[in-house]
Amino acid sequence: MLKFYYSAAPNPTKVALFLEEAGIPYEAVPVDTRKGEQHNPEFLKINPNAKVPVIVDGDVTVFDSNAILLYLAEKTGKFLPAKSDKLRGELLSWLMFVASGVGPYSGQSVHFRNYAPDKDKLEYAVNRYAYEAQRHYGILDARLANQKYMVGDTYTIVDMDVWGWARLIPVALGESAWVKFPNLKRLIDEISARPAARIAAALKDRHAFKTEMDDEARKVMFRHLNEKVA
Known about the structure:
Distance between the termini: 45 Å
Protein name: Glutathione S-transferase
Order of helices and strands: EHEHEEHHHHHHHH
Pfam families: GST_C (PF00043), GST_N (PF02798)
Shape: globular
GO molecular function: transferase activity
InterPro entries: Glutathione-S-Trfase_C-like, Glutathione-S-Trfase_C_sf, Glutathione_S-Trfase, Glutathione_S-Trfase_N, GST_C, Thioredoxin-like_sf
Number of strands: 4
Low-confidence stretches: none
Keywords: Transferase
Number of helices: 10
Structural class: alpha+beta
Helix content: 40-55%
CATH architecture of the largest domain: Up-down Bundle
Mean pLDDT: 94
């Protein structure tokens, strides 16, 4: 059975969504990142980057959520657009857009807004990452103004990819941010109402993950606080 290493974060949750949508049996293996379990030697053997999600599918190991989504979609033939070079190009482009832009900028916006030490003194960083996260979500919203889904006219892994991060827009940009992205909210609400999405979002409740962002959690999650580069 496929092993799925996960936490409560956005990237594992979107992989959980695919597994549930596709009906793939899996063993959910929790990795409590606020306890530092991602740095255990056993876990580093499957992902030297010390991050979740990871899947182990027989003798195949895949890490990075977008790589996992693409691997599973191609293996199962599910949640891909109709076969054409045009739609294949769109699929890859939007997957990488989320991987290189939406995810990183949203994550950094959450970090500087909520977790950075002396965040009140970091106005430049807060504004930069919030601006870039908002800009990326604006591009998604504009795309969805003219079509129901991100690629073609069917629900695909790109929509799952977007859902993983966009459902947490208020955390990254503030409670009122949704008013700026009505088309994106329409998609996220639709996906969130799907039975598979409800199961994926509740996966975190199967394990008593540490929720406190205390000194121990900061030490293992923000290692730059302990290891200066220069």
